[in-house]
Each structure stands twice: as structure tokens, then as C-alpha cells.
Amino acid sequence: MLKKQLYLFFILSFGLVILSTSCKKKNFLSKKNLSFSIDTLVFDTVFTSIGSTTKQFKIYNKENKTVNITDIELMGGDASPFRMNVDGIMSTKIQDIELEGKDSLFVFVEVTLVVNKICELIIEDSIRFRTNGIDQYVKLAVWGQDAYFHYKDLNEGIWPSDKPHVIYGYAAIDSAKTLEIQAGTQIYLHKNALLYVYKSTLNIQGTIGNEVVFQGDRLEQDYQDVSGQYYGIYFEKARPSTINYAIIKNGTSGIHLYSKDPSFTDYTLTVTNTIIKNQARYGIFIYSGAKVKAENCIIAKNGTHALLVLEGGDFNFNHCNLLGYGPSTAAAIGISNFYNDYSSGTTNVGSINEGVFQNCIISGTLPTEMAIDTIQMQGVTINFDFNHCLIQSEEIQTDSFYQNIIWNGNPNFTNTNEFDFLFPNSAIHNEQGINSSVVSDIFGNPRNNPPDIGAIEVN
Fold this sequence. Notes:
The protein is mostly beta strands. It folds into two domains: 35-143, Immunoglobulin-like, CATH 2.60.40; 148-407. 6% of the residues lie in helices and 44% in strands. The chain contains one helix and 40 strands. It has an 18-stranded parallel β-sheet that branches. A ten-stranded parallel β-sheet has the order 12-14-17-20-23-26-29-34-37-39, with no helix packed on it. A five-stranded antiparallel β-sheet has the order 1-3-8-5-6, with no helix packed on it.
């Protein structure tokens, strides 16, 4: 009987030890999460010639304690073109992997595409890692067509136009470099992507019928008129740059200029014969001292402003249509030489040394399509010159810088919903403008003497 009791005692004691050890092990598991060698795994091979490849990244447990990874899941499942292998296990979902403290694991990812069935420019998926109830993701991306792909790269020289260019993340022009984009080049940008011009020069050289086109990389018909698909073209302290015959559509902020290179007195950007439309926010955004000259441009149907000037900057617009007709309740033009920085509690004020609208149409569906708010103080210059323009304004302005203005004239555009801004029966026809160096319109038609107001000459 004693032997039996001792035997039961040892069995129960052994069980308690196991239970105690198991509980103790759980108590010693880390409550922290994982770290990764990358946040996005990009397959940059062009798959019109190669059908598959394999890449890898690492998972790190930077804590001293072991961490339990509850789930590792390929979110696209069996339908995904990607396949993953973690710690020798290949599956779309792997559970309960323990990663010891200060240790790491390799994740191998393979992708196979059926080339003749690919219509997307970029194909994406992600791997979800769940630890301690928290989800973390590593994105997966693969180029799906024969194109030039740019992923956080530096660019200079000439972009060839024989294939599309696709920007994922950003394509940058580094300091003191120059990038030329030739006529007919098609540029597709992924979500939040941008072309970044930093202390450098961008020259876009489109022609009539061979415009350089910027648009999102979603090719489905449903995305043809969806704004906010990418960020836009961003200039920071840029050297003098040019854009001629471009179409920039469906982004967030079509052209964003932040300050200028103080070594140059010329315009930061000269943009001509260009259409900027259907941006989620701004058509052109001039911030903190940048300087822009625009001729024969149509900027319309944007989420907020066709043109926004903030904290000062210079501009000269001639024969341009700066229009609303989008979803915005903000004026087509917003101009301010100051910016309230609420984080620091300061107000930054800049000068507008040149603020010119000549032969321009400023119109839309709102009663007033131009909002100006400036602060005048010592050391700050404000020079406006609005001449021979049609301006939509509930209040007729009487400042001396408004000269020969057609107030609230109806442009009678043919079809603003279809972006048709011809005007065969309009107050701005019949040569209401003033002669300038712009001798042809956005379509290459010769201008009359005197010319029509706006980007289009009706002959």
C-alpha cells in the first residue's frame, strides 16, 4: 500500500513539475513584437522574360526572452502568385513558431507569374505576422509587365520612352543632377509614390500629340477618373526646371513646390501647354518661396485648389484656365503669404514679389473662385497684377491691381464634366485678352491679335 502511495506521489509530483515548468515557460515568453530586415520585399525582375525567382528577408527577436509567433499568413492565400517558406515549412499559413531571444529566422519568398495573363503593372500581397495579439506586415510587390521600374532610386540623364516607367515608393533626382523625360513617355505611379526633385533639375519635353502622361498604376476602367492614386511631382529647393506638354491626372497634389534654390534667381519651374486635372487636393502648390511661371495650362476639377500659394512665393500665369468644377467647396485659387504653425505657435510670413494673372480664366461652380489672405509687415513685399482676366467673384474687387477684368462672365464651356473647355459662345471669345509673347494656344493654334482669354484660342 505504501509503495502504491509513493508511486502515486511521484506521478503527481512529476505532473506538477511538468505543469509548473509549462506555466513557468509561458511566463517567460516575451510580450514584445518582431522586427524585420525590410518592410517591403520587391521583386524587380521584368517577368516578360523570366517567370519566377526567390528572395528572402529576416525576422528578428531583439528581446532576451523567447517570443511565440502565433500566425504567419500569406494574405493572398492559395490564389497568390507568391509562396513562402519559413524555417523549412512551406505553406500559406504557419502557426506557433517560437523564436528565441536575440535570434532570427529567414523567410524565403518565391513568385511565379503566368506572363501572358498579366495585365497589372504591379502585383502586391503581404505576409502577416501575429505576435501577442498584434499584427505586423511585410509587403510583397512584383513588377507585372515589361517596363522601367523605379523603386527608391536616383535618376539622371534621359528616361527612354520605348516602355512605360513605373514608380513605386519614389524616383528621385539627386542634388545637382538633371533628368530629361522625352515626348510620349508614359509614367505610372503606385499609391503614395512621387517623382522627387531635390536641389536638381527636371525637364519634361512633351509635344502636341506626344504628351508626357503621369497617372496611377491601376489600369482598370474603374480607376480612369479616381483621384489620389499617387502623390505627384515634388520639387524641393529645386534648380530651374521645365514641364512642356504634359498631362498630370488622378494624383493627390499634381505639382508641389517647396521653396527654391537660393543660388538661382530664375523661375523654379516653367510649365507650359500642360493639363493638370482631378487631383485629390491641389493642382499646383507653391510653398515657402518657390517661383512658378505658367503659360497655356488648364488646371481644373481638383479636390481643393487649382493653385495654392502658402507662406509666400512668386507666380506668373498667362493664358491659363484655373478652374474649379471639382468636388471642392474651396476656391479655385487660394493665395496666402503666411502659414500658422500650430505645433510651434508661430506664424511664418513670406513675400510675393511677383503675383501675376494675365489672360486667365478663374472660374467654377462657386460664387467666388479666388481667395486672397495676406499679412503686410516690414520687410515683406506683396506685388499683385491681375490683368485682362475673367474672374468669378461674389464681390467685385476694387484694388488697383485689378485691371480690365471681366467679373463673373460665363465662360460657357462646352462640357466641364468631360473636361471640354472649349467655348464657342462665351464672354471670353472675341479677342478679350492682351498681346503677349504667347503666340499659340495649348493646341498649337495661332493666337489672334488681340487674343482670347484662357488657354484655348477659338478661331
